[in-house]
Amino acid sequence: MQRRHFIRTTAAAAALATVGLPALAQGNWPTGKAITYLVPFPAGGTTDTVGRLIAQKLGPVLGTSVVIDNRGGAGGSIGSEIASRAPADGYMLLGGTISSHAINVSLYPRIGYDPVKSFAPVTLIGTNPVVLVVPANSPYKNLQDVLAASKAKSGGLSSASAGTGTSQHLALELLAYKSGVKFTHVPYKGSGPAIQDVIGGQVDMMFDTTVVAGPHIQSGKLRAIAVTSAKRLGSMPDVPTVAESGIQGLKDFEVVSWQAIFVPAGTPAPVVDRLHKEIRTILAEPEMQERLKGLGMEPADMTTAQIADFQKAEVQKWAQVIKAANIKAE
After folding, report:
1. What Cα–Cα distance (Å) separates residue 183 from each residue in 133, 242, 244, 305?
2. SS3 for 263?
3. What end-to-end distance do the CA atoms of the chain give, in Å?
């Protein structure tokens, strides 16, 4: 009787001990349950496109399905908050960006998550450099011309963007902050109408991604002044970087939009490591490399520790710029 009582008591204690533990502790991961890949932007954008490419290949590798869930709004903040509150069991992936995981925390009065503490980084998919362009018939041939003209003009040269707080806008503010030259920001609702007004000469200039600006540069409608990456781009080898201008204060100038994958903080390390390994292998495939480059992205390859350091530096950099320029969310 005493032995049976001991066995029952021990079994009950073991059962209670498992209550509240993540699914991983109760069995292998993944178990066949579908994995959600949350995209905090509407369907059709770069984050959504990249997410679908990865999900299509990741599902078969893990032996389960990976389902895309679009939750757009507030520059990625709404979907990111939803993902941050999901169980940390390996069944929630989040497509994070420079907006959702570096800029928004300083741009909006309140977001319901901490971009660093609420998540664990899995993969940096790639970066998307930004290029400064002017109309083809503009008198400005280089960055020195642009800064000199803006200095001489009341209010500075006008510069379009896809909206307040976007990477195009913040690239302008960083240039103003580091060079000490003022510009007039002209926000639009998207890159499409903004770049058309630059082409038409209604606006003096614009920073935009190589995806949007590239075709117009190639067609001769726009002139590329400088790229904001640390090194020249293989697709635009004749266009200097901002840092190459030799202008004081701009030697460390760098602005790149980026795409990454995060999981909720507390996700077991073996799960994070497995995801990192499998997604890294997928991204290294020649086909995926070409697809990313076709989207105007420079494929990246960082360890999770390197991604964490990179993200923290991005948060600090944009907090400084947003505060200095007194930028407020629309």
Report:
1. 15, 16, 21, 37
2. strand
3. 72
- Count other Cβ atoms within 10 Å, centred on residue 60: 10
19 burial type by CB count under 10 A (0-12 exposed, 13-18 middle, 19+ buried): exposed
Element (H, E) at 309: helix 304-325
| Measured distance CA(131)–CA(257) in Å, rounded | 11
For 102, 127, 281, 316, 325, the CA distances from 312, given in Å and listed in that order, are: 8, 16, 25, 6, 20
Phi, then psi, of 39 in degrees rounded to 5: -105, 115
Residues 101 and 226: their CA atoms lie apart, in Å, by 26
How far is Cα 308 from Cα 26, in angstroms, rounded to an integer? 29
DSSP structure string for 207-231? EEEHHHHHHHHHTTSEEEEEE-SSS
**Beta strands at 35-39 and 184-187: parallel, antiparallel or unpaired:** unpaired
At a CB cut-off of 8 Å and minimum separation 6, what does 238 contact? none
CA dist., res. 47 & res. 156, Å (int): 34
User: Can you give the pTM of this predicted structure?
Assistant: 0.80
Residue 198: phi and psi, rounded to 5, are: -70, -45
Residue 87: CA count within 13 A, CB half-sphere: 10
List the chain pLDDT tens, one digit each, 330 residues. Answer: 444 443 343 344 433 333 333 444 445 899 989 999 999 988 888 899 999 999 999 999 999 999 999 998 888 999 999 999 999 999 999 999 999 999 999 999 999 999 999 999 999 999 988 999 999 999 999 999 999 999 999 999 999 998 888 888 999 999 999 999 999 999 988 888 999 999 999 999 999 988 889 899 999 999 999 999 989 988 889 999 999 998 888 998 999 889 999 999 999 999 999 999 999 999 999 999 999 988 878 899 999 999 999 999 999 999 999 998 888 876
**Cα-based torsion angle of the residue sequence 295, 297, 302, 305 in order, rounded to the nearest 10 degrees:** -90
